Amino acid sequence: MPRNKWTDSTVYLTVLVFSWVCCILTRKWAMGLGSAIGKLLYRILKKRRQIALNNMQIAFGDDLKQTHRQEICKACFINFGKTVIEFMRFPKLNAENIWCEVTVHGREHLNSALEKGKGAIVFLPHFGNWELLSLVYGALIPNRAKAIAFPLKNARLNDLIWRHRQLLSLELIPRKNAIRATLRALKNNDAVGFFADQNAGDQGVFIDFFGKPASTARGPVSIALKTRAPILFSLDIRQPDDRHHVHISPPLHLELSDDFEKDVESYTAHLMKQLEKYIQKYPDQWFWIHNRWKTQPNPNRQEIRKKS
């Protein structure tokens, strides 16, 4: 079905004007607006709110009281609202002033990984202000940071959003070109980021996440195993004053066994366990409103694999 060009143009212009407004606001007013938007979304997006509450029930069970789950859910929406506003204000940031808002812990781990000469794969979750990581990595390793992204169907809006993400030299790789472009980037000793914590559908590898199978992208670990590139876990944590701490873990240097699928499963599980620990410590900063456990294992497929 062809897209409605008038609708696409209206959405694009609305976002463009909104971004301009966000940029002229003071930081205090901008964060206040983000908080208000988050609270509004919490009230009106009932389906997403219920998904978030259901996800927390899966993750924490009865250890977390209903009232506490609701508080975390509301805080999650507020974090999302602030993330949107901060994203709109990206044009105000550059390679110098970004460090007034961001502190990086573990940049030596990124340098250590790249010293091996095989590039690096960075496993990124939707945590804190995950969008900010595009600018952070672009500033940390100018012209050597790449990230996989899904293009939007609205071409003009997509161009605007991609320009924001690529402001500080990071290069986005369209999902359809991901494998070839990633291999080329690793050969050039670049770092490639994968946002790989969300539901991966039938093509994912099933990992126990908070005790329940969750389909998880196999790409980051699969490519790391095949290329011998080190893989790092990295995320952003929003601070009470709305500044940010970006954490970069020590690199994992993966070892191949005689069972490639088992290796993919084992190392992916290791990365997801790291995410679990951060979620338990900062439960309001993960993107709970995504239906994380939507895809469940097919018993028939599992049986076929066991027989083979």
The counted number of beta strands is 9
Largest sheet: 7 strands, mixed
Strand order of the largest sheet: 1-9-8-2-5-3-4
Choose one word for the global shape: globular
Task: Write the SSE topology.
Blueprint: H1 5-24, H2 27-44, H3 46-60, H4 66-88, E1 102-105, H5 107-114, E2 120-124, H6 132-140, E3 145-149, H7 155-165, E4 171-174, H8 178-187, E5 191-195, E6 205-209, E7 212-216, H9 219-227, E8 231-238, E9 244-248, H10 260-281, H11 299-307
Parallel strand pairs: 1-9, 2-5, 2-8, 3-4, 3-5
Antiparallel strand pairs: 6-7, 8-9
Helix pairs in contact: 1-4, 1-7, 2-4, 3-4, 9-10
Description:
- The protein is an alpha/beta fold and 308 residues long.
- It is 50% helix and 15% strand.
- It has helices at 5-24, 27-44, 46-60, 66-88, 107-114, 132-140, 155-165, 178-187, 219-227, 260-281, 299-307, and strands at residues 102-105, 120-124, 145-149, 171-174, 191-195, 205-209, 212-216, 231-238, 244-248.
- A seven-stranded mixed β-sheet has the order 1-9-8-2-5-3-4, sandwiched between helices. Strands 6-7 form a two-stranded antiparallel sheet.
- Helix 7 links the parallel strand 3 and strand 4.
- Helix 1 (5-24) packs parallel to helix 7.
- The longest helix has 23 residues, at 66-88.
- Mean pLDDT is 94; it is low at 303-308.
